[in-house]
Design the sequence.
């Protein structure tokens, strides 16, 4: 088991969407020769994101922009798909016509957007995916690389952090995303498997929320019809924060863990009342690695099909330090604004 405060870098647990073993971020580094070549070619890269409203997304955009700027590349546009498959599919059709050199994208689903992304690849636009690979898309033929955190391990970390706060024979509710999204599904699987192996005494229940904005009401409805659980795991921080008022209203508020460390989650974790632990990603670094992979591919180099950035274990004791480390104010200040 990784000790609290450690980087979970030596214990990559999950495989890629096609069963790939993870490659480390050090395999997507730009040399001076690559940077010089890229600057002479002035690449344009479009960003196609599930949202740009979250702090996680803003950190990732900053990481992408910082790396592309070093290589003399520009961001042609940043598309906010607002978690909508139809918006994303329409944006892809437009990008096929606009023909940027590459697209860095977070697909908003597994099956709903698969054909649109396949058409993008067929049009000759190089594609780097973040976190999620739509169903049926294959590395090399449909996309160059997928960059992510070890989401299975993130789920394990969340279970490790929640376990000490759940009594013997207690109940834990897992609040998961209803969309077929590889990253969040892996977190749920990792959490469940850890609990069933290490804490078989705990009874697990599951519920699904349709969107981050509706997570709070979904969990409130669950609490209205069921006794309050001893613990709750929510698959990322935005819906977890939305659920805090409903959990706080319980006579005995359950402990909660989640994934990602935005400002609101860091504040709640620092209070140490309901949110007791976080499995944190490195969104700034993940963005920079994705941008580096795009530049490498555009200059004729090869990159691994599945690149994983290590996770961090976060507690109330180290929340403020880790918040800065994973790409908070310090990283954002170092990166120039996205045009």
Sequence:
């Amino acid at each position: 088991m990784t000790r609290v405060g450690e980087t979970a870098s030596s214990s990559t647990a999950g495989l890629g969407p096609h069963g790939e073993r993870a490659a480390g971020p050090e395999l997507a580094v730009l040399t001076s020769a690559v940077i010089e070549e890229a600057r002479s070619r002035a690449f344009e890269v479009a960003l196609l994101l599930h949202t740009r409203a979250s702090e996680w997304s803003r950190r990732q955009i900053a990481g992408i922009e910082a790396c592309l700027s070093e290589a003399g590349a520009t961001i042609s546009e940043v598309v906010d798909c607002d978690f909508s498959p139809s918006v994303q599919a329409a944006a892809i059709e437009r990008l096929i016509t606009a023909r940027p050199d590459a697209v860095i994208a977070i697909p908003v689903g597994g099956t709903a957007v698969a054909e649109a992304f396949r058409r993008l690849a067929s049009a000759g636009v190089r594609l780097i995916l973040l976190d999620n690979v739509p169903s049926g898309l294959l590395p090399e033929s449909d996309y160059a690389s997928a960059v992510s955190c070890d989401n299975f391990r993130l789920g394990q970390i969340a279970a490790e952090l929640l376990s000490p706060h759940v009594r013997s024979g207690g109940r834990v509710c897992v609040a998961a995303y209803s969309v077929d999204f590889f990253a969040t599904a892996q977190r749920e699987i990792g959490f469940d498997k850890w609990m069933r192996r290490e804490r078989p005494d705990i009874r697990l229940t599951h519920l699904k929320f349709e969107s981050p904005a509706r997570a709070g009401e979904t969990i409130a409805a669950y609490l209205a019809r069921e006794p309050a659980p001893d613990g709750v795991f929510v698959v990322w921080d935005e819906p977890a924060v939305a659920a805090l008022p409903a959990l706080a209203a319980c006579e005995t508020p359950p402990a909660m863990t989640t994934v990602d460390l935005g400002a609101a989650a860091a504040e709640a974790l620092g209070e140490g009342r309901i949110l007791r632990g976080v499995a944190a990603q490195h969104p700034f670094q993940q963005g920079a690695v994705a941008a580096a992979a795009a530049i490498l591919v555009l200059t004729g180099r090869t990159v691994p099909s599945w690149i994983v950035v290590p996770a961090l274990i976060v507690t109330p004791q180290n929340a403020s330090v880790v918040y800065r480390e994973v790409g908070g104010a310090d990283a954002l200040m170092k990166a120039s604004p996205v045009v």
